[in-house]
Amino acid sequence: MARATRVFLLLLLVLLSSPSPSFSLYEDQVGLMDWHQQYIGKVKHAVFHTQKAGRKRVVVSTEENVIASLDLRRGDIFWRHVLGPNDAVDEIDIALGKYVITLSSEGSILRAWNLPDGQMVWESFLQGPKPSKSLLSVPANMKIDKDNVIFVFGKGCLHAVSSIDGEVLWKKDFADERFENFEILLGQLFLRLSCD
């Protein structure tokens, strides 16, 4: 009896002193069977997109340089992109009901993203002589399958950019003037300049 007790205590001591079993995931289970979370940060800009038959979304840009498309009903993230640390989003808008247009890096980078899946469609680098406030105007009356123009003010210049491929169609330098705002009414571009 004493020997059986010693053997039992020895086995119990060996069992308790051995390392505890570890739990792990296989590579293909990451994101499915763990506590993986995606965050987007504090929202700076938001554009709502609702279709009659389809998903209701809000497209946001955040202080952490994230662009994301969120489900309005459940709050799920459809897609998100984390931009570089020096690529802050200045403006965001939706064109033709299927593209997200973002203006970032103080008006020097214009991008079009596919609204359903977040794939980048095109990217344009806009140049100008001086830093300035950046503005984006996507006309509300754009026609599908037509080369529409997106207007961008940044770096002291007004740019007209093709909505199909992001090509800069023309640019006007306003480096010497204070540019406050612009609007497109009935197909006409109106500029508002201020005098010092």
What labels would you give this structure?
196 residues, mainly beta, four-stranded antiparallel beta sheet, Lipocalin
What can you see in these coordinates?
The chain is mainly beta and 196 residues long. It has one domain: Lipocalin. 8% of the residues lie in helices and 44% in strands. The protein has a 4-stranded antiparallel beta sheet with strand order 1-2-3-4, with no helix packed on it. The longest helix has 16 residues, at 2-17.
Strand order of the largest sheet: 1-2-3-4
Strand content: 35-45%
What Rg do the Cα atoms give? 27 Å
Total number of helices: 1
Low-confidence stretches: none
What is this entry, summarized?
With 196 residues, the protein is mainly β. It has one domain (38-194): Lipocalin, CATH 2.40.128.
Ordered list of secondary-structure elements with their pairings:
Elements: H1 2-17, E1 43-49, E2 57-62, E3 66-71, E4 77-82, E5 89-95, E6 99-104, E7 109-114, E8 120-125, E9 135-137, E10 149-154, E11 157-162, E12 168-173, E13 178-185, E14 188-194
Antiparallel strand pairs: 1-2, 2-3, 3-4, 5-6, 6-7, 7-8, 9-10, 10-11, 11-12, 13-14
